Amino acid sequence: MRYGLVAGPCSAESLEDLRLVACRLRSISAVCGKFEVWGLRAGAWKPRTRPGGFEGYGRSALAWLGAVRSEFSIPVCVEVGSARQVSAAYEYGLRDFWLGARTSGDPFAVDEIADALSHYDDLGRIYVKNPLSPDVGLWDGAFRRLERAGVGESHFVAVHRGFYPHGGARYRNAPRWDVALGFRADHPSVPFLCDPSHIAGRRGLVAPVAERALGYGFDGLFVEVHPDPRRALSDRSQQLSLGSFESFLDRLERFIGSLDAGGEDRGGLDRLRSQIDSVDEQLLELLSRRFEIVSEIGEWKRDHDRGIVSWSRRESHLRELVSYGESLGLDRGFILRLWDEVHAESLRYQEEVGSGGSFVIADAGCGYGCESSGDIGGLAE
Ligand code: PEP
Ligand code: MN
């Protein structure tokens, strides 16, 4: 099997830059056995969180993209967020489009774009990125809306670009492989690419994320490449230079070789294991976030001369956790054991930032010792 590859700058910034990337893609097509180039990507309109940043070169960018498409005879895809953008891109000869993460989660915008696309009978691929929130229903809904407007499934490609992260994570966007692979399992006939650039957020992480995706059985990659990322006008820190793109592909070719050699087909086991890996990572991320907050609490208590342990707070909090955990099907004893560990670690964090008065009791509460044995405030019968 050959993996699909879409690559190019975050934004189309000049014809010259686009030609350099297209030229590289053409040579990859010729020599790279493991990848099949599906197209060059570049944004003409950039959806920015706040106005005032670089918002793309619009029609000038479309003209460069159209020129590159004819000169190099490769598909060129551009992000569209409205019907007007679809018709403008069409005027310049573009036939491949992507719906970005801010658009795919907006049913009105998707309907409008779907209707605009349905007027053309020479469409290329339509890439739909996951919405910012890990809501697979919304992602699926975007495909259903395209279908309802008459855009055939043969044009569809799903792109996993990570989800809006909770703080403190390693990635710019949380990969949530469990969510993405769940979506994939429900849509086995839609080609599934990973955008490691927007997940990683920094160059050094793009290759490891891409390897992970290929290991999880994705069909290819949608990756940001810029001739000189240092002067890129958007997403500077995550774009690969042409040189690092080459080493990136070499590394992946070797990685794919090792996957192929490993060859044993374990059916759904690999998919389930990858989901577990992803959930375990999220557990660690949440714990790390918890201890960050605990340290802040420790500082507050130190500054306000409060003791570290509040037994009444601990008791009522744990009571609520046990009841919530049980409603989720977790074992009561397990929750208590786990919380013993988490709480002991929290005390350690607070002691570290504290004034040195360890295990100072802020209130008497139930009076159990801090080295509880899972029998806290009469919770464990
Ligand atoms: C992009 O691909 O440059 C982009 C804006 O992506 P996303 O919609 O995934 O943020
Ligand atoms: Mn980008």
Describe the structure.
Helix content is 51%, strand content 11%. It has 381 residues and is an alpha/beta fold. It has an eight-stranded parallel barrel, surrounded by four helices. Strands 9-10 form a two-stranded parallel sheet. Helix 11 crosses helix 13 and helix 12 runs antiparallel to helix 13. The chain is elongated and about 70 Å long. The C terminus is likely disordered. Bound molecules: phosphoenolpyruvate (PEP) and manganese (II) ion (MN). Manganese (II) ion binds next to loops.
Short description:
The protein has about 375 residues and is of the alpha/beta class. About 50% of the residues lie in helices and about 10% in strands.
Highlighted features:
single chain; 381 residues; alpha/beta; two-stranded parallel sheet; 13 helices; 51% helix; disordered C terminus; binds phosphoenolpyruvate; binds manganese (II) ion
